[in-house]
Fold these 4 entries.
Entry 1:
Amino acid sequence: EAGVAQSPRYKIIEKRQSVAFWCNPISGHATLYWYQQILGQGPKLLIQFQNNGVVDDSQLPKDRFSAERLKGVDSTLKIQPAKLEDSAVYLCASSEGTGGAYEQYFGPGTRLTVT
Amino acid sequence: RKEVEQDPGPFNVPEGATVAFNCTYSNSASQSFFWYRQDCRKEPKLLMSVYSSGNEDGRFTAQLNRASQYISLLIRDSKLSDSATYLCVVTNTGTASKLTFGTGTRLQVTL
């Protein structure tokens, strides 16, 4: 079974530029998550989708970050404009449903460096 | 106070040693508990769920103490391949399956 796919794997941009990340979840998984993992910290949830609806975006910095999951499958996360503190690994995860009973499967992540 | 707190380590242990990691959480209403493993520059992967009765999977034993809001992971007979960061994770009520991660404890097993 194919896992969660993410692209690009690495991205280097200058501050104030824009960047977009793409995620393709495991087939059939209704729930999709975006996490931000800063070096030395655990992943922090940015946004959670159930199909194409947002379940939780309370920790998404909405002045610069946006995410969408059109058609309830693939998702994109955008940062505009980027700041130095956005340097992190952006992890996408998916699960069959919501609730602690459903294991979340993570993709390999996109490593963003903002200079 | 952080929602989930862990000793960041690193824990350096020789092969064959027994090592224990601890984790505390602040929300008494937390529902589900997990240990994830994250290898260097890789994504986190579920190691095991943690149940109130305690659970064991081979060399790994996880325990939960709800009264003290404390979770532990015990690794017996450590292998070189156990070297990784171990993330303590909780889910809280009212937020579906939102996982809240600790900062992780780094383990280095040496010869």
Entry 2:
Amino acid sequence: DSGVTQTPKHLITATGQRVTLRCSPRSGDLSVYWYQQSLDQGLQFLIHYYNGEERAKGNILERFSAQQFPDLHSELNLSSLELGDSALYFCASSSPDRGNNEQFFGPGTRLTVL
Amino acid sequence: AQTVTQSQPEMSVQEAETVTLSCTYDTSENNYYLFWYKQPPSRQMILVIRQEAYKQQNATENRFSVNFQKAAKSFSLKISDSQLGDTAMYFCAFMTPGAGSYQLTFGKGTKLSVIP
């Protein structure tokens, strides 16, 4: 158990819909990263939040957005969903401010868009 | 931009034998970190081993060790005494602390099967 939690574990929805994925980092970790794992693209970095502020963006679509709340949990919002958005979405947390840049991954949310 | 290449999509090894997974990367950075992650059928991403680029000594973790060749930009993973539980996807990953963000860049992965 990495200490990172993600909900829900599975999500099935239809094209055009909007969903929210939730991530709670390990206790004390200020950084949250979101990654997408798909058959086509492999594992890709989406976005990084540090203590509530966006730090870096990767290959994140404009239809996707994220935020990190004062209690440090993070949400990834996916809207106008397309079939190609079906993937496993991971969040990971770390504490580089404590000299540890190792990222601990949550169990992932499996999104299926029908 | 950094890239990570894993040239072996699939590999197999007999139980108790040794296997080496290859990884090469491309970067112009001097300060970076390299990782191997394991993803078993459960899909959980598990850190296997890490290497800091400034360290010349190769990292080891029990049955797992790396061969880090900085000049060649090569970072291979050796698994000794392979066990059935080692069956998984293995991802090589690169991280550089650019602009305060430590995101990982992953290779496409190598699917390792350990045969009884």
Entry 3:
Amino acid sequence: AQTVTQSQPEMSVQEAETVTLSCTYDTSENNYYLFWYKQPPSRQMILVIRQEAYKQQNATENRFSVNFQKAAKSFSLKISDSQLGDTAMYFCAFMKQGAQKLVFGQGTRLTINP
Amino acid sequence: DAGVTQSPTHLIKTRGQHVTLRCSPISGHKSVSWYQQVLGQGPQFIFQYYEKEERGRGNFPDRFSARQFPNYSSELNVNALLLGDSALYLCASSLWADRLISSGANVLTFGAGSRLTVL
């Protein structure tokens, strides 16, 4: 069974700073996908970024980028030039290829202070 | 285009009662999944349905059941409610198919959830 671990329950940074959220996972699968989802107080889970395990290049989406280390089973999220609207719970998630089941971590509560 | 819609948004039940939660996927999405998110935790997978058939089930008791209709909408039913069933229930849809259409087909789009409180 796969497991996902987020070791930082809470983080807080000032607006415009850069912040990195950590995620590690455990799997015996070789082909899989990794995701970061954001859940603001409105409750809706919103996809931030996605990484295919077979791609060596790290995914980027505007201010969001990942550091994917397959051998270390690590998948961190970097948010550059943080904004107040980035305040939310952030969940790291794993999905093996061919399946539709997401395995989530416990989440990191990120607060961006003005 | 409308996103994934769920109803009701909030509901309160008492122990032993039954609840039905509803979900309408994004137009064109044939796969619907259900997740339970207890306060302070990450979501846990309950079910996945595709083309009206159950394609995956998480570690939940038989009190939990679901179905998918010909229009791809879905219902989650929970019988004999327990206090521990209090949670946010999330529905997600995707383009997933038996044959992978593209790598993007595995991306789940979530609804805003149904908050269930059991007293």
Entry 4:
Amino acid sequence: GIQVEQSPPDLILQEGANSTLRCNFSDSVNNLQWFHQNPWGQLINLFYIPSGTKQNGRLSATTVATERYSLLYISSSQTTDSGVYFCAADGTSYGKLTFGQGTILTVHP
Amino acid sequence: DGGITQSPKYLFRKEGQNVTLSCEQNLNHDAMYWYRQDPGQGLRLIYYSQIVNDFQKGDIAEGYSVSREKKESFPLTVTSAQKNPTAFYLCASSFGLLGRTNTEAFFGQGTRLTVV
């Protein structure tokens, strides 16, 4: 099945800093999503982005499907951005999103 | 409000008991899924259902059972055969089936199960 790798595993920032999270995947995809898992465990949908570029406020994402990677950009980070960011992709396995191991982001005031 | 509702949020179970986790969605999605998350880990697929009265095993189905009698509902039973049931369980849904169509998955708030 598809392999999904995220980097870096941990990221510590000061408030106001920018960051880039990377997701590499090993197969072609119909679905690639970025999620933010909050301290209560809920997975918040950030982007559905199997290809192209999208922006939502301070967050943006780009997926280059031909090179099998996706990037999540966080600008002007805030303490509320802290949490775990997951990338997930479906590949050719029916019924399944394969998750990366996540990036733990900590933003200090 | 449209969404996915999981209940209860927290569940405690004695060893040897079966327990059922509820998942209801009002998004009119055909496909539903159950995932398990262990501390510091990503999510792993337990079962999925593409349509009513049909469901398939995922990567870690042993010790779990499901049913899909209604489009809106996909309950998960954690049986006594599951060796390490303590985990965070997340239900998801999508219009089409992941891996087959271009479709986005949405998740419920999760149920934290602890075996005591």
